[in-house]
Amino acid sequence: MLVVTRYAVAPEGAAAFLAEAREVLDVLAAQAGCEGGEVGRATDDPGLWTLATRWAGVGAYRRALSAYDVRVRAVPLLSRALDEPTAYEVLDRRPEPAAGTTARAADAGTVGVGRASAPHVPTDLDGAGGTPSAGR
C-alpha cells in the first residue's frame, strides 16, 4: 500500500515543515509494517510538499495510525494534508532510487533563461536543515 499526503507550505515555513516531516517519517518508519517513505517537494511549485510512505497492507497502516507515538507526533502534521485521496493500491514496483537532497536553487523563482546566475548557488533550504543527515 502506498500512502501519499500532500501539503501546501508557505516559503517561510519550508524549513520548519521539512524538519517536522522528517520527524513524522521517523515515527512512521518505526511502526510495524512500514516499508519506507520519502519527503518530497514539487520541483515546479516549491510550496507543494509530499510525505509518501509504503506499507505491508492497509491493516499495517491503520494499526500504525492508532499507535500512541504516531497519534502524538505524526497526526498533527498528517491532519494538515490537502483534502484528497491518500491511500493507493500498489500495482507494480521497481527498485528504489537513491535518496538525494534538493537541487532547486535559492533563486530559482527569479532567475530564468537569459538571466545570469552564479557558478554555485545555494539551495533555498541551505542553512535551514535542508541537507539530509546520514541515513536519510
Strand order of the largest sheet: 2-3-1-4
For the largest beta-sheet, the strand count, sense and barrel status come to:
4 strands, antiparallel
What oligomeric state best describes the polypeptide chains here? Answer: single chain
Distance, first to last CA: 21 Å
Helix content: 25-40%
The 3D shape can be described as: elongated
Derived from helix and strand composition plus strand pairing, the structural class reads alpha+beta
* Overall pLDDT level: 85
Q: Quote the CATH topology of the domain at 2-88.
A: Alpha-Beta Plaits
How large, in whole angstroms, is the Cα Rg? 16 Å
Number of strands: 4
Which H/E pattern describes the elements?
Answer: EHEEHHHE
Region (Disordered): 92-136
GO molecular function: monooxygenase activity
Pfam families: ABM
Protein name: Antibiotic biosynthesis monooxygenase
Please tag this protein with its features.
Alpha-Beta Plaits; 136 residues; monooxygenase; 4 strands; 26% helix; disordered C terminus; ABM_dom; monooxygenase activity; 4-stranded antiparallel β-sheet; alpha+beta; Antibiotic biosynthesis monooxygenase
Task: Summarize the structure in words.
The chain has 136 residues and is α+β, with helices and mostly antiparallel strands. It contains 4 helices and 4 strands; from the N terminus they run E-H-E-E-H-H-H-E. Strands 2-3-1-4 form a 4-stranded antiparallel β-sheet. A hairpin with a 6-residue loop joins strand 2 and strand 3 (48-55). InterPro entries: ABM_dom, Dimeric_a/b-barrel.
